[in-house]
Amino acid sequence: MRIALGISYLGTAYQGWQSQPSGQTVQDRLESALGQFATVPIATLCAGRTDAGVHGLMQVVHFDTDLVREPFSWVRGTNRFLPPDIAVQWAQPAPDAFHARASALARRYTYVLLESPVRPSVDAGRVGWTFRPLDGDALRQGAKHLIGEHDFTSFRASACQALSPVKHLTRIDISRRGAYWRFDFEASAFLHHMIRNIMGCLLQIGQGLQPPGWMREVLAARDRDAAAPTFAPDGLYFLGPRYGPEWDCRSAPRPMIGCHEPKHPPHPHQDLRSDPRSRRGRRGGRGRRCHRLRALPEKPALRRARTRCRTGAAPASVRHPGAAIRQRECYQYRSCLRPCGGRYNAISW
Predict the structure, then answer these.
(1) What are phi and psi of 114, to 5 degrees?
(2) CATH assignment at residue 142
(3) Number of domains observed in the structure of the chain
(4) What pTM value is reported for the model?
(5) In the chain, where does DSSP find H-type helix?
(6) 299 in Cβ contact with 272 (< 8 Å)
(7) SS3 content of the chain, % helix, strand, coil (to 5)
């Protein structure tokens, strides 16, 4: 049985995604947690490997197992053994033909950059930083030279294991909000340090140290020495892969494979139990308290309530979410927002 997982992590404390002898990688921590939950070793394959210090918002992995578990069990059980900066967001069964890496049509990254004369403090490790002002028009003109299918040898790290440096870069979007710049990249695949090397060149252009046409010269040189130094990994985020419609793909951060949602999700205060600590409960009455984290085997049946809208709408017979309990016993049911925009009060129970 093949299972697909969606993983998010803060990469500051880790040496990248791929497993290493030190064990200080995201993959090592994930496989360790899966092994503790499943009580058998589990090996995973990811959609895209990230460098040390790079974060992941929707990394997709898959693994094969003989264990049969509900999807929410894989999520909660694995998270039980993961550190706070790594979390499984969703889990779904996947077809045997699905491959987290080979089935991906594209990968998406975002780089968040802070332009400020003072280094970041609260955002340290989560954003890149430049103290020189940037020219947005020059940045966009330089980025245009990279769109399309090219040989990106000039932006390739010496330790890159890719079979070919030829990649198809489909999109570079550059936007700004306040002091923060956002660079969105999408390509069929990326080389080792490719985005960080591109960011180094873009900053040279944005700061006025090089003209926009310099990017075309760097690309044509096919020499790593022709490009700018590798930029910091702090603000780089892996947004996740993009799959074809045959895998029922959804945009992150929603489940990408076989996702399913209840048509009518239950209200968090729907299930109430008798509370012996309440005054009415001690006397054998119907004293109740809200149990957010406990679900009863069977939910109480809802009864129809005659309702009235304070805004003057005509009375109507609806299934009120608080009909299963007394209105005064749960403060969140005293007034419920309804689609009409007014507030309905149940006048008969």
Answers:
(1) -100, 125
(2) 3.30.70.660
(3) 3
(4) 0.71
(5) 26-38, 71-79, 136-144, 194-206, 214-221, 279-282
(6) no
(7) 20, 30, 50
Q: How far lies 244's CA from each of 63, 90, 172, 256, in Å?
A: 20, 19, 21, 10
Report how far apart, in Å, the C-alpha atoms of 275 and of each of 289, 302, 334 are. 6, 21, 20
pLDDT in tens, 246-298: 875 443 334 344 333 333 444 444 444 444 454 444 444 444 444 444 444 44
Compute and round to an integer the Cα radius of gyration of the chain: 26
Q: Which domain holds residue 87?
A: 2-94
Q: Do both 152 and 63 map to the same domain?
A: no
- Do residues 212 and 317 both lie within one domain? no
Residue 160 domain-assigned?
yes
Domain assignment present for residue 262? The answer is no
Q: Classify residue 127: in a domain, yes or no.
A: yes
Q: Which amino acid is at 321?
A: P
Beta-strand pair 236-243/104-115: antiparallel
55 and 156 in a single domain? The answer is no
24: domain CATH number? 3.30.70.580
Residues paired with residue 93 on neighbouring β-strands, in sequence order: 3
Provide the pLDDT confidence category of residue 81 given band limits of 50, 70 and 90.
Answer: very high
Q: Of 94, 120, 145, which residue is a domain's last?
A: 94
Please, what's the largest Cα pairwise distance for the chain? 85
The answer to whether 171 and 88 are in contact (CB under 8 A) is no
Q: Are 101 and 45 in contact (CB under 8 A)?
A: yes
The two three-digit tokens of residue 289, written as one number: 């308290």
Residue 264 is classified by DSSP as S
Residues 288 and 323 in one domain: yes
pLDDT tens profile 52-74: 999 999 999 999 999 888 999 99
Which helix (H) or strand (E) element contains residue 90?
Answer: strand 86-94
Annotated catalytic residues are: 51
Residue 245 lies in a domain: no
Q: Rounded to 5 degrees, what angle do the CA atoms 258, 260, 262 make?
A: 170
Q: Which residue has the tokens 């594209």?
A: 106
Picking from 39, 59, 94, the residue at the C-terminal end of a domain is 94
Tell whether 76 and 132 lie within a shared domain: no
